[in-house]
């Protein structure tokens, strides 16, 4: 090949002097990559420093781990009921479950409308930004805090839990739904507009059918979250249900055997939910 | 022949710098098949979309059925206009998760009240009409199939069916064969020709393929940088015109296809 060195250096670095010895970089070092590297480095240093400067007091690390495992063994290997019967436990579980269903349902219905208006391809930019900003603000505060905030007016208990959890579900699902709507191909909307279809017709005939699977899967994910939160709310906000029993066992009776039963019950429900969501999704898809 | 559609000094600016169309004037007679050719970014798609107001032209007049479509402000009048104009697209733009049947019936939405259409209620006559159109396009076996199971050529035929059930006066086709293989392309172009000659529907079609445009159309409009540079018979399109439209002559265009190696070496 009769390509002289001058031409080659023109190709590689735009006419500057040739640096033939330097290795060719795969990627250019950009600001964001530098930031990511610095962050990773800082986290690594903090972790090492953290472990070195822990104040262990009188707790012996190995002993602590051993006794934790002993507790685990009591919980998972020797579950036993003490203060209530199995049917009572299942009833309480249903209370917790229905708290999850109710808050997800309220959240889903309101979020569906908010999501439509928050989707940039269906609504105007101003409305969309206002709704998105608003729900982002709500989402930034954890669910538990919302429950406690509503407990100021509604009192600690199931009412505050329902309102607080629905509140957070709305904002979470609004974001998820609107993003599913935005995934719809702009051309499809354009085509229906071109047929003379009205806005609501486009929403019902194109947007909703296209995003149905992802709507269902997001709703189920939120339901799983809400079930978990409902358990915690039983303890933290006195919303009742299985969480409250668990709280009593751990903090009042100190009965690890009964906690084991409750843990297994919750595990079974969680697995059932997972199974159900899989089935429903497959059905919708085909 | 009667003039159905007329552009009078139509311009479209996206912002002060980007000009999509400038001072475009031409007219289309009823029952004509008109090809619009030109390089990518010349403004062909914008031109089509100005007709059914998916894009609003900045200035000028677009006369369709003796009325200026740019003057329509009222939403229901806009819907009425759009029902008379069918459109098909390069990417078909169907609702992939719905069946062929439902997608075709979407063409009737413009005639319905918002609620009835949103719920997806269609009359028996409309359903019969849809089946008839699907049969004529050779899709009668696919009626209940979901659109994501179809091939590209079949999807485009569903797109045509959706446009036809609108009972349009004019059919706009935006690069209808750009994503199709040669044999499907031929099927689609033959269908468009048939629609034009048997149903008397005027067809405006954007094309990249010069040979297809020359073979099928009654008239060719050449566009370059937002301006009409040729308007006339496909037969009298000379090398000079092609040079004007694409910025390169017929031989240079062929060269790109036939001898890519030589082109690469030049670069």
UniProtKB/TrEMBL annotation, chain A:
It is found in: Cell membrane. Keywords: Cell membrane, Membrane, Transmembrane, Transmembrane helix, Transport. The keyword Cell membrane applies. Residues 93-277 form the ABC transmembrane type-1 domain. InterPro entries: MetI-like (IPR000515), MetI-like_sf (IPR035906). It is a multi-pass membrane protein. PROSITE patterns: ABC_TM1 (PS50928). It comes from the Bacteria. The keyword DNA damage does not apply. The chain crosses the membrane at residues 34-54, 89-119, 140-163, 199-220, 227-247, 259-278. Belongs to the binding-protein-dependent transport system permease family. This is PhnE/PtxC family ABC transporter permease.
TrEMBL record, chain B:
InterPro entries: AAA+_ATPase, ABC_transporter-like_ATP-bd, ABC_transporter-like_CS, ABC_transpr_PhnC, MetN_ABC_transporter-like, P-loop_NTPase. Gene3D superfamilies: P-loop containing nucleotide triphosphate hydrolases. This is Phosphonate ABC transporter ATP-binding protein. PROSITE patterns: ABC_TRANSPORTER_1 (PS00211), ABC_TRANSPORTER_2 (PS50893). One of its GO terms (molecular function) is ATP binding. PANTHER family: AMINO ACID IMPORT ATP-BINDING PROTEIN, PHOSPHONATES IMPORT ATP-BINDING PROTEIN PHNC. Residues 5-250 form the ABC transporter domain. Pfam families: ABC_tran. Keywords: ATP-binding, Cell membrane, Membrane, Nucleotide-binding, Phosphonate transport, Translocase, Transport. It comes from the Bacteria. NCBIfam families: ABC_phnC.
């Amino acid at each position: 090949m009769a390509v002289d060195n001058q031409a080659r250096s023109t190709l590689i670095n735009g006419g500057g002097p040739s640096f033939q010895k330097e290795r060719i970089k795969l990627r250019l070092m950009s600001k964001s990559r530098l930031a990511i590297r610095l962050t990773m480095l800082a986290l690594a240093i903090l972790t090492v420093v953290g472990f070195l400067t822990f104040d262990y007091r009188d707790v012996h690390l190995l002993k602590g781990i051993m006794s934790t495992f002993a507790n685990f063994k009591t919980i998972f290997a020797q579950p036993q009921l003490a203060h209530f019967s199995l049917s009572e436990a299942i009833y309480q579980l249903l209370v917790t479950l229905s708290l999850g269903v109710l808050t997800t349902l309220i959240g889903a219905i309101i979020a569906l409308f908010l999501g439509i208006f928050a989707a940039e391809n269906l609504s105007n930019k101003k409305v969309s930004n206002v709704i998105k900003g608003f729900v982002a603000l709500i989402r930034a505060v954890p669910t538990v805090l919302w429950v406690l905030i509503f407990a100021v007016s509604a009192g600690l208990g199931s009412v505050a839990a329902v309102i607080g959890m629905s509140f957070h579900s709305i904002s979470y699902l609004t974001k998820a739904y609107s993003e599913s709507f935005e995934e719809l191909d702009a051309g499809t909307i354009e085509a229906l507009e071109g047929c003379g279809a009205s806005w609501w017709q486009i929403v019902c005939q194109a947007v909703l059918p296209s995003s149905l699977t992802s709507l269902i899967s997001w709703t189920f994910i939120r339901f799983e979250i809400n079930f978990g939160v409902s358990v915690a709310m039983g303890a933290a906000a006195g919303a009742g249900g299985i969480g409250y029993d668990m709280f009593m066992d751990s903090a009042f009776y100190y009965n690890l055997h009964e906690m084991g039963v409750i843990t297994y019950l919750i595990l079974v429900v969680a697995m059932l939910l997972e199974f159900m969501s899989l089935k429903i999704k497959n059905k919708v898809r085909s | 022949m009667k003039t159905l559609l007329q552009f009078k000094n139509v311009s479209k600016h996206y912002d002060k710098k980007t000009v999509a169309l400038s001072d475009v004037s031409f007219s289309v007679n009823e029952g004509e098949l008109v090809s619009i050719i030109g390089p990518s970014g010349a403004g062909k798609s914008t031109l089509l979309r100005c007709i059914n107001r998916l894009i609003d032209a900045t200035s000028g007049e677009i006369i369709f059925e003796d009325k200026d479509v740019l003057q329509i402000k009222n939403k229901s009048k806009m819907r009425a206009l759009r029902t008379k104009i069918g459109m098909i697209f390069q990417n078909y733009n169907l609702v992939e998760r719905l069946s062929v049947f439902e997608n075709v019936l979407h063409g009737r939405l413009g005639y319905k009240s918002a609620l009835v259409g949103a719920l997806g209620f269609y009359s028996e006559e409309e359903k019969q009409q849809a089946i008839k159109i699907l049969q004529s396009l050779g899709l009668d076996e696919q009626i209940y199939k979901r659109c994501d199971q179809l091939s590209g050529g079949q999807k485009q035929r569903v797109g045509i069916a959706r446009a036809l059930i609108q009972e349009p006066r004019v059919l706009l086709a935006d690069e209808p064969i750009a994503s199709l293989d040669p044999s499907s392309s031929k099927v689609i172009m033959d269908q468009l020709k048939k629609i034009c000659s048997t149903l008397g529907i005027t067809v405006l079609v954007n094309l990249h393929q010069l040979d297809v445009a020359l073979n099928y159309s009654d008239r060719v409009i050449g566009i370059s940088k937002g301006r009409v540079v040729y308007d006339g018979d496909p037969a009298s399109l000379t090398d000079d015109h092609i040079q004007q439209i694409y910025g390169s002559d017929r031989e240079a265009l062929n060269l790109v296809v036939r001898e890519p190696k030589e082109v690469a070496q030049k670069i």
